[in-house]
Amino acid sequence: MKVVFFGNNRFGAIFLRKIIEKIKIVLVVTNPDKIRGRKRMISPSPVKIVAEEFALEVFQPKKLKEEKVVERLTKEKEGVFLLAGFGRIIPKELIDIPQKGFLNIHPSLLPKYRGPSPIQAVILAGERKTGVSIHFLSEEVDKGDIISQKEIILNGKETYLELEEKLANLGGDLLLSIWDDFLQGKVRGKKQDEVKASYTKKFVFTDGEIFPHQEKAEEIERKVRALNPEPGVFLKVKKNNQVKILKILESEILEKKPVEEGRFFEENGWLALVCRDKSLLIKKLQLEGKKPIESKEFLKGNKWLLD
Question: What angle (nearest 5°) sits at the alpha carbon of residue 263, between those of residues 257 and 265?
């Protein structure tokens, strides 16, 4: 069975690598190469990197509604289309092409956490379980009938990158487990319960700003795990009458609260921050214009934060 795969990000790349040796991928649709990183170099998407590693044909349309896109994909109409970590809305004319169906692999237990940021949202909410859903793609985002789901229990310590990798691999395993039955028409979709539906948003830089005197340590610690590496978690500090951005990259909760909210203090050589209820031990940070560093090393030359 011919399969066309749509994907762009790291989630899609991990998923593709998981299924690539057992499912025949004839075409990979991904974003055009773009400028990335501080060095402003033109780079391919993570999915394209995997596709080229396995010598797969890659198609990189700028706009999905172009006639050439419909023409190219129509050549594969007798197959199945898969989507994971694509991040773009698929127009109806493309959804209708594959005769065997267009499936989406979504990293949440639908109908909960529909939309672009389910992994971050699950961590921020302090959920104790999540999972992946395989469903038929529909015009309305993440509303298609569910084919299969797999749940996992969380330990409350997962970072975004850790959970993304775990769910991408879980999605690959789940698809492989139902693949033969799906192709034989033995798997049918089930409508989602709209009463239980919830939605996520795309997080931006300002979502990462923290206000320790207003927020609980647990809330900030979740943000650190959920919003790194992008868009990041930060607070503003003053040095020589200049406001600097201080990013928190790794942290853990401290029960003690020795001084007033919003103040830094030193705890066994580490930098710590007083929050509304408890304190936050900062394990790794990055001051604006500098490289990431452990807070123990940072404190050796930056005692001004403790003043």
Answer: 70
